[in-house]
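Pasting as-is:
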Amino acid sequence: MDIRSDVLRKIRNRREGYSLDQAFYIDQDYYKLDLETVWYRDWLFVGHDCEIPRAGNFFTLQVGDYPVVITRDRQGTVRALHNSCRHRGSRVCSQHKGASAKLVCPYHQWTYELDGTLLFARHMAEDFDKSQHSLKKVHCETVGGYIFICLADEAPDFSPYRELAEPYLVRHRLGETKVAFESTIVEKGNWKLVWENNRECYHCAANHPELCRTYPEAPSATGVQGAKDDPVIAGHWAKCEASGLPSEFRMSPSGQFRLARMPLIAEAESYTMSGARAVRRPLSADVKESHIGTLLMFHYPTTWNHVLADHAITFRVLPLGPELTQVTTKWLVNEDAVEGVDYNLDELTHVWTETNDQDRQIVEENAFGIRSPAYEPGPYSPEDEGGVMQFVEWYCTFMEQRLQGDKQPLTRVA
């Protein structure tokens, strides 16, 4: 069976306003098609400039079958390279993060410059051409302190995202922050279930007592419609925009990425149990205003974010299998903030550490039920799950457009 045809048929026949067919959440071949159609062909958030502040700093990640290393070269440029030695394919960098003057393959010591150029390969033939055996490059772009990569041979235009996001991010100066804490969890559910859960707060009151102290449950704050008609949100936008902080809801025509600055509940300024700031030192000296709420930034398929006055929380989604998803959360603070003086780590991380674990349990129970032979797509709440419907619509439209342009069939594994 041609999987592309099967997926296209189900996308075209799906019932609008309902969840997807079971195969989209559990099938190995559907997962493989997701990788090839979405994850290997579009821009993916991988990390932050501040994680590699100096030449020689690097971090690694795995996207499907692709190991990748992100480095900063001697000219200060952020680079992304395929983490596969041009000799016999061994991983060159096996650590999660580190620093090195050169990139040296541990297998046979082939040695690469920080930009991937091959410098040294011992005992090779006289006609061996080093210039033809550099580490393969991965498309890499940075904006507002965020690093994105694209594994495709030809990357989509990054400029629409840059033009939309940069004005919202510039005053937060996330390139001048540091990671105060990093957490990685693995959720036993498909990556789309992770996103669907994120895109609504229909479940929040019953499941997120810590988050609900400060984050509004209103669909107008979480979804994609109704915000401008909400007087609290409209007033918040007007106040922030007047102080030079872009805040109004803006979304790309494709629906793939969007930004908006949302107010927190009452007088809350941060995601803490009290609502008070978790960090005494502001995230950026350029943002002196109080009660700016949270800048929500989404970019499918890899990241959602909260940028506040005192810290930022960034989330990275990576698929590990048809029913396995890695979610990495990073808490960013001012680079000069001192733990134990300017912030208490438990206070800083408590709300989202608890919320992440609660979401993990929700996704896993969701996935468990979807495996049932009795499962069939169910209706979304138009009032509370508009954000979920928008995500599913983006995914289906994205897949359909890409698959229509693909000529080579992908056959189901026997």
